[in-house]
Amino acid sequence: MPATVIVGAQWGDEGKGKIVDLLALDCDLVCRYQGGPNAGHTIVVGDETYKIRQIPSGVIRGKTCVIGAGCVVDPEVFLGEVDTLEARGHSTADVHVSGEAHVIMPWHVAIDQGMERRLGKLQIGTTKRGIGPCYADKAARLGIRVQDLLDAKILRQKIEVALAEKNLWLERIYGVEPLELEELAERLEGYAQRMRPYIADTSLLVDSALREGKAVLLEGGQGTLLDLDHGTYPFVTSSSTVAANAATGVGIGPNRIDSVIGVTKAYVTRVGEGPFPTEIEGPDQQRMCDLGGEFGTVTGRQRRCGWLDLVALRYAVRLNGITSLALTKLDVLSDFAEVPICVAYELRDGTITEDFPAHQSDFHHCRPVYEQLPGWETPLTDGLPDAARAYVEFIERSLEVEIAMVGTGAERERVVALR
Ligand code: GDP
Ligand code: IMO
Ligand code: MG
C-alpha cells in the first residue's frame, strides 16, 4: 500500500510540480498536505503551460486530488483555478477539499500585506497571500474552516465575530480600509455555494484508497528550508513542510508512508528575504537567473540564485528521511565551464562542518567551502555526458542517497530516469 511523499529539499520551486506530474502517471491519488496558494507549481505539457497554486498537480493527469486538513484554502483562488482548468478541458469533478482545512479570508491577505509593509526593511518577503495570518488564527483557534462554508448562518456569524476584531487591526494598526460585513458575507456565501460539492472527508478517502491498494502521492508545497520549525526561521512559511507532516496533513498514520522523494534543483534558488550562503555574486547571478527562467510563479519576483549546497541538502535528507532524490534543471548548468558545489561551511570560529548549523547566527555568518567540478558545456538533449554524470554521482556519494531521476528541461518528457 504505497504512499509516497514528494518534498521540496530546498527553499521551494525545486520543480515538485513537474515531478508529481510525472509520477502521477502511475498513481491514483495526489494530495496536498500543507500550504496554500503561496505555492506555484508549473507543469509544461507540449505547448501548454499550467501554473497551479491551490489544487494538487495531479489534476493535469486527471487523477483524484485531495487538499488535506493541513492546508489553507483561498476560495477565490481555488474557484478561479477550477474555472481555468475546466475551460482548458480538465475536469475538477474528482478534486476533494478537507472540511478541516482552514479558509484564507480577505482580512488574512490584507493583514499579510500590512505586516510586511510595517516591517519595512525587516520584512520576510512573503507571497502576501494571507498564509501566515491564516495559520496564526488556526493556532489561536479563531480560524474559519472549510466545513464552516456548509452552513450559511454559521459562516455569517463567524465572519461577523472575526470582522469586529480584524477591522480594528486593519484600521488602527495597518491604516487601511476596513472590510464591509454585508459585502464580505455575500461574497463568501457565493463561494460557499460553489465549494460545497468539493468538500469531503478526505482522511477517510485517502485511507480507503490505501486499503484498496491504490498508489498515493503526497505533494509538498514550499520546501524543507521554509519549514516553520526546521527552516531558516523567521524567513520561513507558516506550515510544516517536511515529509513527516504529510501524514498529519492528510490525516493518515505515519506508517502508511513508505518512501520519500526529495526534489532538488541542480543549483539553489530562494525567493524572498533570508540568509543564503551559496548565493552567487557578480554577473553569474543574472546569467543563472536568465538560463533557468527564475521568476516566481505566484509573485513574478526574480528568484535569488546560488550554487548547489550539499550541507543544506544533507540536512534536508536527514529531516525528511529522503529515500531518493529527483535532481531537476541540470540542463541549466550546461552553460558553465566549471560548476562550484558547496561541500562544507566554514563557521566564524574557523570550524569546518558538513552539518547544517543548529544555531541561526552560525548559519547567517557561515562561508561556503566549494569544490569546482568540470562543466560539460553541451546541451543534455541526448542523455548525460560524462561530466554531467560525474556531477550527479558526486552528489550521490556525498549524501549517500541515490538520485533516481534527472530533469533536463521543463517539458514533461525531459527527464532521465537513472534508476
Ligand atoms: P515547484 O514549485 O517546486 O513545483 O517548482 P516551480 O514550478 O515553481 O519552478 C520550477 C520551474 O522549473 C518551472 O518553471 C518548471 O517548468 C521548470 N522546470 C522543472 N524541471 C525542469 C528541468 O529539469 N529543467 C528546466 N530547464 N526547467 C525545469
Ligand atoms: P512552491 O510550492 C518558493 C516563501 C516566500 C517567503 C516565505 C514566506 O512553489 O515551492 P509565505 O507567503 O508562505 O508566508 O512566504 O516563503 N515561499 C516560497 N518560495 N516557493 C514556494 O512555494 C513558496 N511559498 C512561500 O517567498 O520567503
Ligand atoms: Mg513554485
Pick out its properties.
about 425 residues, alpha/beta, 20 strands, about 35% helix, binds guanosine-5'-diphosphate, binds 6-O-phosphoryl inosine monophosphate, binds magnesium ion
Chemical compounds bound to the protein: guanosine-5'-diphosphate, 6-O-phosphoryl inosine monophosphate, magnesium ion
Give the % helix.
Answer: 25-40%
Q: If strands are numbered along the chain, what order do they take across the biggest sheet?
A: 9-7-5-2-10-1-11-15-19-20
In terms of structural class, how would the helical and strand content be classed? alpha/beta
> Ends: how far apart?
21 Å
Proportion of β residues?
Answer: 15-25%
Largest sheet, in brief, is: 10 strands, mixed
Q: Over all CA atoms, what is the radius of gyration? A: 21 Å
Count of beta strands: 20
**Which outline best applies?**
globular
How many H/I helices?
12
As residue ranges, the low-confidence spans are none
Mean pLDDT: 97
